[in-house]
Write a structure and sequence with these properties.
Layout lengths: L5 H19 L2 H10 L3 E2 L4 E9 L2 E8 L6 H5 L2 H12 L4 H12 L3 E7 L6 E6 L1 H8 L6 H13 L4 E4 L2 E9 L2 E8 L6 H6 L1 H13 L3 H12 L3 E8 L5 E6 L1 H6 L3
Parallel strand pairs: 3-4, 8-9
Antiparallel strand pairs: 1-2, 2-3, 4-5, 6-7, 7-8, 9-10
Length: 257
């Protein structure tokens, strides 16, 4: 099962690269240091090509894999993407708080530039210094709020065809579990056979999640920090049969220790 994390977690991952540097050095020095290490792999979502600090603006430049992220779908609701970013910045703690403070003290804004590998699809999201200051002073946003923002931006990409009769139709929160809803085309895949292999399928999913890096691993961290489980809900298109495979919060936390 491919994990779809989309732009939000990739943004978080890219920002995280600057955090330690901003705690100890001036903002410009931290940006220059990270840019020397670019391009940086962010997992299946793509890579961060560069980061720069010019005209009082820190610009993050991303190239997203078309297999996983559609720039055109992101362009359908850029305000949702921006609000997701602002939620991620809200009520910052630890190094993230240092980063936001460094930006606001410098009077700097942030720009996120996204494009596909061909460069013919582009989107830019601007966050002003005033908006950053408002996010910094927000004391109410929780890890659950940040996860919800990630899910909203992720659902912009749906539906997503995984091949072999599997289509992710939506990502939802149900109780304490984040579920990928997976439609199973029973003309291509025998649902009874799928159910008989549930234990092996969970082992495969667990192994795949443990091997994640970059934005994919960051998305798992968002789920665990919100004290949620991760589930995959398979539903047959003909029979209506349903099967859930779930990893507990503790199982998620064990993945990358």
């Amino acid at each position: 099962m491919k994990l779809q994390t989309m732009s939000f977690a990739a943004i978080v991952c890219g920002i995280a690269l600057l955090l330690t540097g901003c705690a100890e050095n001036k903002l410009r020095s931290a940006v220059e240091q990270v840019n020397r290490e670019c391009p940086m792999d962010l997992g299946t979502a793509g890579k961060m090509e560069s980061v720069s600090y010019e005209d009082d603006c820190v610009s993050f430049n991303y190239v997203f894999s078309e297999e996983y992220v559609s720039i055109e779908k992101m362009k359908q609701d850029p305000e949702l993407i921006k609000n997701s970013v602002l939620t991620m910045f809200s009520n910052p703690q630890g190094p993230m708080k240092d980063f936001i403070q460094a930006l606001t003290e410098a009077g700097a804004s942030v720009k996120f530039n996204f494009q596909n590998p061909k460069g013919d699809q582009k989107l830019s999201i601007d966050v002003s210094s005033e908006e950053l200051a408002g996010a910094r002073n927000d004391a109410h946003t929780t890890d659950a709020d940040k996860l919800d923002a990630a899910l909203r931006s992720t659902n912009l990409q749906m539906p997503m065809d995984l091949g072999d009769g599997l289509v992710i139709t939506q990502v939802i929160t149900e109780g304490n579990t984040v579920f990928y809803l997976c439609s199973v085309d029973e003309h291509q895949l025998d649902f009874k056979l799928l159910k008989s292999q549930a234990a092996a399928l969970k082992q495969e999913i667990t192994a795949n999640l443990a091997a994640l890096s970059g934005s994919d691993a960051k998305f798992i961290e968002l789920i665990a920090n919100a004290h949620k489980q991760l589930g995959y809900r398979y539903k047959g298109t003909t029979s209506g049969q349903q099967m859930d495979i779930t990893l507990t919060t503790d199982e998620l936390r064990q993945l990358h220790r």
